[in-house]
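Usage

Read records sequentially. Each one opens with the input sequence:
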Amino acid sequence: MGTTEPVAKTKTLRLFLQKGQILVWNADDANILRTNHKIVGFQIGCLPQSPFQNGCLGMPMLLMKEEAYVLLKKGAAKLFRNKRLLHTPSDCDKEYIKKYQEGIYQEQCEALMQRRREEILRHADSIVAGKLAKLKGETPSKKKRKKAMKQAARTDRAEDYPQASDQTESTSKTEETEIDREAIIQRELNKVKVPPRDLTYTPILTECPLTKESDLEAVPLNFPSTARDRIRCRVFEDLWEKGHFLSCAAKFGGDFLLYAGNPLRYHAYGIVVCLESDQELSGLAAVSWGRLGNSVHKTVVLATVEEDAVLYLSIRWAGDQGHL
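and closes with the structure output:
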């Protein structure tokens, strides 16, 4: 793939160092990293609406140190540490969070109760027909309920004009029905209660609402620190600058997975393995890498650095031909 420059950044993104891990807490920043900077990371957070599964995760997003290294080197991001999170929350902090959660609960209650009222009004005809039939000791079928709803809609469009006495009697019955209808609907609306807390969502905060700018201090990455780290960073940077998307390849026994485009649209086509320039590669290792790549339908790319130049060697298993 030809060399492509990343899309110009619109703002300096914030990365947070927490217990040796580099995290992105802001969802907008995570989207900018993917769309503008080809950095995908890995989401490790729990979804509030689906907490008992791990097939789909949410914020925060965990970055590889190589990803953070490239972002910091290119000036696309800054690394911070939240000093407030290093201390035990005070009583005032706990009270603030408690009030914050209570406010969210009240907002959800209002929204859920309003939704329930709208449902009652939307299905008012069916509810009234069923209640009136129940008061008369009848259990109307679905067909009868539909018929009653149609008749109620056609009361103002009757084709036959009744006699005066019939009109008086019909008007009286209509008024009674209308009174019953309003009373029934009002009783149903009065049944709408505040939902219990276990039926409402408790949002998972991705940013501390108490954090102030003064709580954030810029910190160094202190990476790479070893020869292998430097090779990994150099290889990652070279492939990233050439327009590739990369992610962690630990589950395949490699260093990086190589994508031709956004991983949401493309499968990985290569496994990058970083080696030191003086490291010997035995025939057994070459065969092992070749067969691994064949079993997962990916090309194994061996990468090393010599005099700041990145060198690559791809291995692909030839199958029945009996050689690499």
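Summary fields computed downstream for this record:
- The chain has eight helices and eleven strands.
- The CA atoms of residues 244 and 260 lie 6 Å apart.
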